[in-house]
Amino acid sequence: MPRFDHCPRCATALEDIIDAEGRDRRACPSCRFVHYDNPTPVLAAIVEHDGCVVLVRNKGWPESWFGLVTGFLEKNEEADEGVLREVKEELGLDAELVEFVGIYSFHRMNQVLLAWHVRATGEISIGDELAAYKRVPIDAVKPWPMGTGKALADWLDRRD
Question: Hey, which of 65, 85, 92, 111 would disulfide with 125, CB 3.0 to 4.6 Å?
Answer without folding.
Answer: 92
